[in-house]
Amino acid sequence: MKSITKLMVVAMLLVAALVVAPAAAEPRKDPVKNGTPIYVGEENLNLSEVFPGNKSGILVYAPGETNQKTIRVGTNSSFDLLPASVGDATGIWYAYGEGGTPQKSAAGSIGNVYIDIPSSSLGVVLKGTTTSVDGKRVTPGQSIDFRINHNLAGLPGAEMDIEVTTPGGGKVTMLGGESLAGRMLTGQRNTTTVPVENLKAGTYTAKGVWKGPDATGPGYDTNTVTFEVSSGTLAVKADKDSVIRGNSFSITITGESKTDYNVTVKGADPSNPTKSPMIAPSQTALNMSGVSFGETNATIITDASGTASIQFNTTSNAEAKTYTIEVKERFGDKKDEVKVKVEAGSVTITSSGTGTYYIGEEITLSGTCTENETVYLFVTGPNLGSNGVNLTHLGPVEKGKGGSFTVVNVDADDTWSKKWNTGDLGDKSLDAGGYTVYAVSKPLGKDNGLSDAKYATASINLRTGFLSVDSISAAVARGDDLKITGTAHGKPDNVYIWIFGKNYYGGESGKLDVAKASVESDNSFEKKIETKDLAAGQYFVIVQHPMGVKEATSSAGSIAYDPSTGQISGTGINTVKLTGLQAPAAASALIEALESPNIPDTYVKLTFFVEEAYLFIDSIGTKEAGSTFTITGTTNLAVGGLVNIDVTSAAFQPGSKTEASAFSSASGTAVIEKGDGANTWSFEVDATGFKPDQYVVKAESIDTSTTNSATFNMVEAGEAPVTTPPEGETTTPPEGETTTPAGDGETPTEAPPTPGFGALVALAGLGAVAFLVLRRK
């Protein structure tokens, strides 16, 4: 009894040992033969036969060359080949014993090995083919091959297990009745075939696991592959339940691997295939010679995973209804079908803005089209023909002739857009009025039966463009800029400004020229005209609106001009040499041309005078020191201009260091304001700190180089001349002073103030002038 018990305990211990310590790969049992392969990652290699008579030494790659590498072998009976030692230097490595010197051509070496980097990969393909099913489906009617590709055949005992994880999560080395364990690695590839027929449906994962001699590092275990086993049941589905005709859809067939199936559009008329969905040509899944565009049935073949995708096209002629696509085994009874509804598309159109525009404006027409890849535009309106005309040249449209329409391509998102310039219509033009723009899915005009197409309309109201110009100053000081501003409805790029004066026609040296003013998005325009080089006198201005006429070189709207000859010309008008006429006649000749019924342009005429610039200073009078007073003046310079003012003491002279400065001044700018008749300006002077003296006022416009000057006297506070108060008012003398009443018949007098330095100089000057006058007499 005791013996039996002991035997059971020993058996249990053995089992436990097997569970706890499973069998591991062992190192190579035999020494490495001279000249044979060893692999990066191998451990405990016995290199005694590679280093005969030496217990240690070096392995050398490319001995004596510039790319020479070495690995120290400390004990040849137990050597680990590490990845870091080898790098990418695969090939023959030569052995040198202790003290050996590597030489070119491996002279002096005592042996060699071929070092390689281990490589292995696992693939899963259909039996006997190169068709991979990794990540794909396989069906029960197929068999698969597990293929281990490697470079490990030179390693004695090279062996792998193919471990498979089943859909239930278990790991096995037996699949479909075939063992996947202990696969010996020979040659470069080892293949094991497994039938799929009895495998449970679901996803399988497989990996090659190294079971050979001890080794570490990459390249021994393989990658992981995955495949799905399906039931092989036939099924078909569409990527869309419905489709707008003119577009495509596709169906996906799931069945047996590499199997033929017939695909048919049920109820289709083979003689008129464009009325139904059609199988697109040249698809890889087609397996029927002679299949071409327009056919409604074909034979297809599934791929290794048992699937196939087929594209169907529809045209704008397809009937709007539900179609049934049937899929059936070519050599069997399995079948399935799917329904797809083909719907009629639609067309929409909108116009930018309010729907009311000026002739010459650009209108953006846009919309959607799900019926076709192209929309055809035309317009109808007063006397344009009931069938409609082209938008860009107003030519009549014709049924079925796409080129007679304005054609717009539809983008991938089913939208379209067209910019329509209502003024750029070739040699034709539109009158003001109401118009209708049509967007149609086919090249059909209004009278061609639009019921056969999808269409939409937009109403357009056109008005005649017009020009308004703001009033300008009747007179302009020479040197000032003249601003011409206004609005030009109709969205022209520019308006044109003609100016005529004495021997002046808008250009230099008496040449004819026209100024342009850009029209902004809000229809406004502004043009500055420089007058510094214009002679004084009257000028005539004509502002011209081109009314949608496209700008050309040397043209102002419909009027062409030649600066070299001074002539103007145009369709339906006489050629006139404006530079041969005086200013009023030249302006009249241009106006006569613009008023021709052959010229659509409109205009506004203006006139102005150029005057010599003046800048006057009003009389200032005598001022008291410490007071605040205003200097004023008048000018014909433009409102908003600046006048620089300098007020300077006439006593400006050198002084001693100990004396207070006898020099006082003030300066600044005055803004010109509009006045009654002449414009005005004013400048306030704070005379705090000013000393009694004579002062010089200088007023200057830098823009026009216009100056003027004046003088005034400043006296001590309280010494300025007293102004007699109005009747009934009295004047109270300053505190501490008395006023002596005048006697009967006498007028009170006051002592004149004592003039300062500047005043004395001024009086002396006046005396000198009086002396000269008397002397001349």
Write structural notes for this entry.
- The structure is a single chain.
- The longest helix has 20 residues, at 757-776.
- The strands form 13 sheets. Strands 7, 9, 10, 13, 15 and 16 form a six-stranded mixed β-sheet that branches. A five-stranded mixed β-sheet has the order 1-5-4-2-3, with no helix packed on it.
- The protein is mostly beta strands and 777 residues long.
- Mean pLDDT is 85; it is low at 1-24 and 723-777.
- It starts with a helix and ends with a helix.
- It is flat.
- It has six domains: 37-116, no CATH class; 120-229, Immunoglobulin-like (Sandwich), CATH 2.60.40.1930; 235-343, Sandwich (Immunoglobulin-like), CATH 2.60.40.10; 350-463, Immunoglobulins (Immunoglobulin-like); 467-611, Immunoglobulin-like, CATH 2.60.40.10; 613-653 and 662-721 and 752-777, Immunoglobulins (Immunoglobulin-like).
The share of residues in extended strands comes to 35-45%
Radius of gyration: 54 Å
CATH topology of the largest domain: Immunoglobulin-like
Quote the distance from N terminus to C terminus: 176 Å
Helix content: under 10%
Q: Helical region count?
A: 4
- The CATH fourth-level homologous superfamily of the largest domain: Immunoglobulins
> Count the strands?
53
How does the helix and strand content classify structurally? mainly beta
Oligomeric state of this protein: single chain
**CATH architecture group name of the largest domain:** Sandwich
- Spans of at least 5 consecutive residues with low confidence: 1-24, 723-777
**Largest beta sheet, briefly?**
6 strands, mixed
State the CATH class of the largest domain: Mainly Beta
Mean pLDDT: 85
How many distinct domains? 6
Morphology:
flat
